[in-house]
Amino acid sequence: MWLDQHIEELSRSRIQDLIKQGHVTLQGRTVKAHQKISEGMIATVNVPPPVETSLVAENIPIDVIYEDTDIIVLNKQPGIVVHPAAGHPRGTLVNALLFHCEDLGTIGGEIRPGIVHRLDRDTSGVMVVAKNDRSLQSLVNQFKACEVSKEYAALVHGQPQPLKGTVETLIGRSTHDRKKMSARPARGREAVTHYEVTETFDEASLLCVRPRTGRTHQIRVHMAHAGHPIVGDGSYGDKREAPTAARQMLHARILAFRHPGSGETVTFNAPLPLDMLELIDKLRDRQRRV
């Protein structure tokens, strides 16, 4: 698209929306997305003023790892939902970002943060959020192309064998519970998860997990499918099985991607949260006493 190459501050999808809404003209006439253009023609793009979001800014503490005009990288705390939805209209990470970020650009014509990927409510760790259309499009493309490097720390029940391996299945909606995902769906999408055991205990193991794809609940589903559900996962495991935890012991430790502005590869780390560290220490102490 010719306009996409000449207007850097707008993403391709935003330009397409402006064309559909009649805000782009060629020689004074509205155009279609695949309109032919010749040398000497004059194209005019009328970008409407950004619309204030209907979402409410809330003073919720967030742990910022890095921030510039294009992106903000966070260490998400467990227990917070990423985006407002049914049952969670407020108190989300998006509400917190609206309060924190004073230089948000437009996402689809609305002043709001651009959610590129999500972590489950009870999963902690590194997240990147776009602050404008261009950054959002760049990051979305990288995630779709599996170009983003992700590494998680996971505490699972039992001791996986082999100690290093790959779980590869389809993942789709469970036919028994539509709120859950399944590694044996009627229809699903390819999902690949690499894991390596980094430490073993009597009842559990600490894993380094590298998902190659990014399906909903992928790591939780794959570890349960392999017979080693994540400790504390009430949906895909058994909270009564020792050891127990108040939430799923899954943490996004490392995230690496190409910066939307500079194009350079950047890597961000988030240390293990206190509840995971305390449980790991208890498991180590228990093993030493045996």
* CATH topology-level fold name of the largest domain: Pseudouridine synthase
Tell how many strands the DSSP assignment holds.
17
Q: What is the helix/strand order?
A: HHEEEEEEHEEEEHEEEEEHEEH
Task: Quickly give the CATH architecture of the largest domain.
Answer: 2-Layer Sandwich
Shape, per Cα inertia axes = elongated
Euclidean distance between termini CA atoms = 67 Å
Range of strand content:
25-35%
Please work out how many helical segments DSSP would assign: 6
Structural class call reads alpha+beta
Calculate Rg over CA atoms: 22 Å
CATH-assigned homologous superfamily of the largest domain: Pseudouridine synthase
Any idea how many domains? Answer: 3
CATH class of the largest domain: Alpha Beta
Please give a structural write-up:
The structure is a single chain. 20% of the residues lie in helices and 30% in strands. The chain has 290 residues and is an alpha+beta fold. The chain has three domains: 2-45, no CATH class; 49-145, 2-Layer Sandwich (Pseudouridine synthase); 146-290, Pseudouridine synthase (2-Layer Sandwich), CATH 3.30.2350. Strands 5, 6, 9, 10, 11, 12, 13, 14, 15, 16 and 17 form an eleven-stranded mixed beta sheet that branches. A three-stranded antiparallel beta sheet has the order 2-1-3. The radius of gyration is 22 Å and the shape is elongated. The N and C termini lie far apart (67 Å). The relative contact order is 0.13. The mean pLDDT is 89.
